[in-house]
Amino acid sequence: MSKVNPPLRAAKPGEPADAGRRSFFSWMSLAWVSFTASMLAAGTATARFMFPNVLFEPPLTFRAGRPEELQVGIVDERFKDSNQVWLVREGGGIYALSTTCTHLGCTPNWLSAEQKFKCPCHGSGFYITGINFEGPAPRPLERFAISLADDGQLVIDKGRKFQQEKGQWELPGAYLEF
Amino acid sequence: METIKDIINTLTAPEILITLATILLFVSAKYRHVFYTNTVALVLFPAMFVFMAISMFDEDFYLIVTKPDNVPIVGMLFLIPFFTWFSMREAVRNDRRTDSGTPLIEKEETADKVLTWPDLVYTELIAIVLLTVLLVGWSILIPAPLEESANPAATPNPSKAPWYFLGLQEMLVYFDPWLAGVVFPGLIIVGLMAIPYIDTNPKGNGYYTFKERSWEIMTFLFGFLILWVLLVILGTFLRGPNWNFFGPYEYWDTHKLEALVNVDLSDYFWVRLLGMGRPDNILIRESVGFLVVLGYFLIPPMVLARTIFKRFYENLGPARYHIMVFLLLCMASLPIKMVLRWLFNLKYIIGIPEFFFNI
């Protein structure tokens, strides 16, 4: 035994023979505990780093002015840069279109002369309603929930979206009668 | 002058350009003894150069060719035809030597073995130094094109991938993103890696030849030159705002109108052929498309194995034969889909946007 594991130091008078070994193990466990703790702290800090203190993303729900400000048949681009939404008013009401192309996520441009949304990346085209009619886009632009607040302002909720190919444009909220 | 420009603008429309290039590739291979000769090169390459030089006087052409992004493609316009011509010329010469029984060019040039050190390593070192000088000079003379900071609400128009991905971007016009962006690029890489395992024919190792491997060479040249390089060139020079096609002498008008209204196969079958509405059930609606796609991948391998690919089937065995034909059919699906789009405005053979499944 003693050949394999010799004591670290000679036992002092009055001390048990294996005190050196015992203190070695307590130091070892302290080292391991502190190492694990530091790793956990570093891991937590890294995880915390993934959630920034300030998010420069606009809120999902926003107010988009009064419906009377919109003109019939005109695509309103005021909220394109800030919220990625087009507001369209036609004869019977108002809807909010997403500005994300359903092909690969570029931002199409509204060409008023041609009365269509046209994507610069692969040439997908959408009618003013959002229906895809040319190019590779597989489905129409998505619409966001639109409603009227108590103060008479439009409220767009980007948390709820409506897809035409799933028949969701008929659901309440996809279209605001006005 | 204007008439010539108009003719060239018309001839470079994707459908005509790709068709003409394919015809040129196969005709030149058929008459390779005439086409891949010094005389043709001495006429062809200076003519290309003069053509480019004269075209520089056209404002629209000048703008697009001198764009810093496009400079490597201008180089490619000359380099790839040159190297194709060069290797085909060597192949034609070697085939002639094989016919007459004289030793091959490669045998004559180096009767003895060449040593890696110093022969090869020195050559590589010189090439590395020269290329570094070229790249440094290039980057000093033509600064990298930097744009304003990114804005998710404003996509540049046109929005182009790096030049080496423009072939993929062109493919995206014809196929759904998951096919053109994921499956096909994966198949290209896997397919190229599979070549040495499928094609174990040792002929052509270490020497140029065409006659001994004409089918393999033509398949590769079609895939590389037409389905990759030509699409890169097309995407670089001929795609403008809204990803519309523009001839080389055409002004990039953002408001150019081009009808791209496309129709799914299910529309053709149920609405136009049978005169009824599209069925509500997705599987019934797309049943024709499923049959077409299944038939495309199942019937040709069996038919070909008994007819023109009989030799392949016997040499390769069933497993390697079916992998080879599957890869070949995938490659062929791109030009087939292109032709269907050009002729019938066909959008998707199977179109299930509800589940992001379109072919």
Describe the protein.
The complex is a heterodimer of chains A (178) and B (359). Chain A contains two helices and eleven strands. By secondary structure, chain A is an alpha+beta fold. Helix content of chain B is 66%, strand content 1%. Chain B is built from 15 helices and two strands. The mean pLDDT of chain B is 90. The A-B interface holds A 80-82, 84, 99, 103-104, 106-109, 111, 113-114, 118-123, 125, 133-136, 138-139, 165-166 and B 151-159, 169, 172-177, 181, 241-244, 254-255, 257, 259-262, 347-348, 351, 353-354, 356, 358.
> For the report, how would you describe the main beta sheet of chain A?
7 strands, antiparallel
Structural class of chain B: mainly alpha
Going by CATH, the architecture of the largest domain in chain A would be 3-layer Sandwich
Assign the CATH superfamily of the largest domain in chain A: Rieske [2Fe-2S] iron-sulphur domain
Low-confidence stretches of chain B: none
CATH topology of the largest domain in chain A: Rieske Iron-sulfur Protein
Q: What is the average of the pLDDT values of chain A? A: 85
Taken as a percent bin, the fraction of beta residues of chain A is 25-35%
Query: What are the secondary-structure elements of chain A, in order, as H or E?
Result: HEEHEEEEEEEEE
Described by the principal axes of the CA atoms, the overall outline of chain B is: globular
Judged by helices, strands and strand pairing, the structural class of chain A is alpha+beta
